[in-house]
Amino acid sequence: MEIKDKVRQFITTNFYVSDPKALVDSASLLDAGIVDSTGVLEVITFLETEFGFEVADTEMVPENLDAVDHIVAYVKRKTGK
After folding, report:
1. List of domains in the chain
2. CB–CB of 2/76 below 8 Å?
3. For the segment 43-71, what is each residue's pLDDT rounded down to a tens digit?
4. What confidence tens digit (pLDDT) does each residue in 11-36 have?
5. pTM for this prediction
6. Does the N terminus or the C terminus of the chain have fewer Cβ atoms within 10 A?
7. Hey, how many other C-beta atoms are within 10 angstroms of the C-beta on 27?
8. d(Cα 20, Cα 12) in Å, to the nearest integer?
């Protein structure tokens, strides 16, 4: 399964997404109300468990975690994939 598929599946399974097919990969998960501050911690735990790296405090920023596309790019940078 591709990184994007794993991330999308996690988001749509663990958070309320009324229409998963309508979720745009570049959309802000925070602005859309899909993920809140507690949800960000859940996303971080998922990334650390699923992809085997640690998310540093300085990396907990919207540029890395606020959209499916951002998360995928972040995972690729951290894992070298």
Report:
1. 3-13+26-79 (1.10.1200.10)
2. no
3. 999 999 999 999 999 999 999 999 999 99
4. 999 999 989 999 999 999 999 999 99
5. 0.93
6. N
7. 15
8. 6
